[in-house]
Amino acid sequence: MTDTSTAARVRWLYSYRTLLKYLVLKEIKVKSRGTYLGIGWTLLNPLFTIVVYFVVFRHIFRIGMPDFLGFFLVGFLLWNFFARSVTAASTCIVENDSLVKRAVFPMEILPITKVVYHLVNYLIAFAIALPLLVAFWGGKLTWHLLWVAVIIAAFTVFTLAIGLLISTSGVFLRDTRDILDVMLPTLFWVTPIFYQPDMVPRALQPVLWANPLTTFVGAARTAVLAGRAPSAGDLGLVLVWTTVAAAFGFLVFLRHQPRFAEES
């Protein structure tokens, strides 16, 4: 492909949407192969997770924060989507080395497949959690819930951009998956999932807000739990983080893609 313009690249990528659909369905089938419930685990897994956290936080820890479970779930589900997506993306090129070496296709399809697969799981989990949030755990049923779709869309693009960076790193640095195993738990605690941002000491606030996930989680909580639109500042940061990550992620991936076949 000689035309490297963004529009041409997007058109070429779109022309392989059937391949993307096939790879995502294959991912789902592989994950459920050999199990008694098969694809049913896609529904039961998040449901069991929510039940476990409900029991733990409601009857064991008994945290005093009002509607803590709702507060926790909104952040945790987003985090889970992000962490699983980038972890899967870290090896998606090298795991498909035969396809990379023999076929001509937009290789972005491979990390996109991982992100879309985990997005499906996230949407199922969120669809299960949302009615419970509204009914029992502090969620507000207002039209501002529509902002959640905007936040999820932006967060998906952000996650994909990070997935492209991580998948590129995974080709040239085979320790990438191991590094993620160390770094992601650290990032988890620097993301306000269990705590409110204002609980962090003032000296550490810059570290907290330098983490893009803080903004996405906060914006989602505002729409779901506060029943209002995210602030202009939060929406501006969401736009900035998404745009910068997307531009950088795609640039790095496309720049190094010609070497994937020889390095994988």
What can you tell me about this protein's structure?
By secondary structure, the protein is mostly helical. It has helices at residues 6-14, 17-32, 41-61, 68-89, 97-102, 109-136, 146-172, 176-189, 205-209, 212-226, 232-256, 260-263. It has one domain (17-263). Helix 4 packs antiparallel against helix 6 and helix 4 packs parallel to helix 7 (146-172). The chain is globular and about 55 Å long.
Topology:
Blueprint: H1 6-14, H2 17-32, H3 41-61, H4 68-89, H5 97-102, H6 109-136, H7 146-172, H8 176-189, H9 205-209, H10 212-226, H11 232-256, H12 260-263
Helix pairs in contact: 2-6, 3-6, 4-6, 4-7, 4-10, 6-7, 7-10, 7-11, 10-11
Low-pLDDT segments: none
**Order of SSEs:** HHHHHHHHHHHH
Provide a count of the helices.
12
Q: How many structural domains in the coordinates?
A: 1
User: Quick one: how many beta strands?
Assistant: 0
